[in-house]
Amino acid sequence: MLLVLCGSAMATGKLLNGAPGAAVALLLLFALLAAVTSPLLFPRSIGASEAQRRSAADGRPVVYWRPGCTYCLRLRLRLGRHARQLHWVNIWRDPAGAAAVRAANDGNETVPTVVVAGRPHTNPDPAWVREQLSRPA
């Protein structure tokens, strides 16, 4: 929201200075930045304990992520519609999720961390994650 507001203010300034093309370009740039860094692009996050419970029941991987992470965004975009099949945990909203990531990564909050069958994988290839979805539970 802040990016859109800043972009709107800058675009208004350009528009008032007689540069409508620059105003439109700035507004589009800031809107794109807002969309790319938005947590709304990701499937709805759940808590770490709920994600682990669901994963144990259905065998689907758990993805620990945080807003603004370019590697998380890359994973999300490359998974496409398959991303909704995973259990997503936002580590900035869930302390248990952040603790699970630190435990898997020598104390670092390195994301995305994908847990498949109880084994953590840090920043895995999206194609590999997609393969895990097709495996039987």
Molecular structure report:
The chain is α+β, with helices and mostly antiparallel strands and 137 residues long. It folds into two domains: 2-37, no CATH class; 43-134, Glutaredoxin, CATH 3.40.30. Helix content is 53%, strand content 12%. The protein has helices at 2-16, 20-37, 48-58, 70-79, 95-104, 126-134; strands at residues 62-65, 87-90, 113-116, 119-122. The protein has a four-stranded mixed β-sheet. A hairpin with a 2-residue loop joins strand 3 and strand 4 (119-122). The chain starts with a helix and ends with a helix.
- Give the percentage of residues in beta strands: 5-15%
Going across the biggest sheet, name each strand in turn.
2-1-3-4
**What is the overall shape?**
elongated
Instruction: Tell me which CATH architecture of the largest domain applies here.
Output: 3-Layer(aba) Sandwich
Sketch the major β-sheet. Answer: 4 strands, mixed
- Round the mean pLDDT to the nearest integer and report it: 88
Classify the oligomer: single chain
Q: Helix content range of the residues, please? A: 40-55%
CATH topology of the largest domain: Glutaredoxin
Span between termini: 40 Å
Query: What are the secondary-structure elements, in order, as H or E?
Result: HHHEHEHEEH
Tally of alpha and pi helices: 6
Q: Report the strand count.
A: 4
CATH C-level label of the largest domain: Alpha Beta
Identify the CATH homologous superfamily of the largest domain. Glutaredoxin
Rg over C-alpha atoms, rounded to the nearest angstrom:
18 Å
Structural class: alpha+beta
Task: Kindly give the count of domains.
Answer: 2
Uncertain residue segments: none
